[in-house]
Design goal:
Blueprint: E1 12-14, H1 24-51, H2 58-85, E2 91-92, H3 94-127, H4 132-135, H5 138-164, E3 173-174, H6 181-185, H7 193-227, H8 231-259, H9 268-292, H10 295-318
Helix pairs in contact: 1-2, 1-9, 1-10, 2-3, 2-9, 3-5, 3-7, 3-8, 7-8, 8-9
Amino acid sequence: MCSVNSTSSSDFVLLGLLVNNQVTGIVFTVILAIFIVAVTANLVMILLIQVDARLHTPMYFLLSQLSIMDTLFICTTVPKLHVDLMSLEKTISFVACGIQIFLYLTMIGSEFFLLGLMAYDRYVAVCNPLRYPVLMNHKVCLLLAAGAWFGGSLDGFLLTPITMNVPYCGSRSINHFFCEIPAVLRLACADMSLYETLMYICCVLMLLIPISIISTSYSLILLTVHRMRSTEGRKKAFTTCSSHLTVVSIFYGAAFYMYVLPQSFHTPEKDKVVSAFYTIVTPMLNPLIYSLRNKDVMGAFKKILARCCSAHKVATNDA
C-alpha cells in the first residue's frame, strides 16, 4: 500500500555509477575526456559536412543527423553525472527525471530508425547506383530524417507519461546514474507486469523494424558485391558499408541487452556498465569510426585545417 505522503513531486536520488568512491576523481576525468572528445568530434563532423561541397550527399546528410543525435544523447546524461560525482546530494527532481527519460528515449529511438535508413541508403548506392540521385534526392532525405526523429519522439511521448504516472512509494533511490526506465520502475509499488510487457513489445518493435531493414539491405548488398567482377568495386562497396556495420553492431548490441534480454540476465551493476557504454562511449565512437575510416571526411578535415593554418599565417605576417 502506498504511503499517503508519497507525492509525484518528490525528488528521486541517483545512487550513481560507482560503488567505490575512492576512484571518483579518475572516473570524473575519464568521463569528462570522453564527453569533450564526443561533443567536439560530432560538432566537427557536422561542420565539415556543412562547409565541404563534396560531402553534400545523402549519406553524409544522414551522417550529420547521427552526429546531432549523438551530441544530444551524451548531453542528456553526462552533465548531470558529472555534477553528481562531485556532489554529496545526488537528487533529481521528478520533472527533470521525466525530461531525461523523454530525451534519452527520443535519441535512442531516433538512432534506431536512422541506422536502418542509412543501411537503405547504402543498398541504393551499391545496388541501384544509376537511380541513386532519384531515389535519394534532397526531399527524400529530409523525409527520411524527419521520419527517424518522429519515430524516436513517438517512443518518448508514449513511454514517458506512463512511466512518470506510476505510483512510487517508500524508497526514492534509483540504483543508476540517470533515470533509465528499468531502474526507475524498480521503485514502483504497483504491479508493473502489464506495463513491462508493453515496454518490451515497444522496444522489440523499435529494434525489429530497423534490424529488418538493415538485414535485408545488407543481404542484397552482399549478393550484388558477390556478382561484381571488379575487385576495386568490391573493395569500395565493403569500405562504404564497413563503418556503418561497425556502428550498428555496437549500438544494437547494447540496446539488445538492455531492452530485449529477460530480467534474469540483468543486475544493477551490469546495467550501469552497459548503459554507460551506449550513452557515453558510443556517441564518441560513432564520429571517430566514420572519420578515421573515411577518406572524404579526412580530406575535408585536412582541407579546413590547411585553411585555418594559412589564415593564421597571414594574420601573423600582417601583425
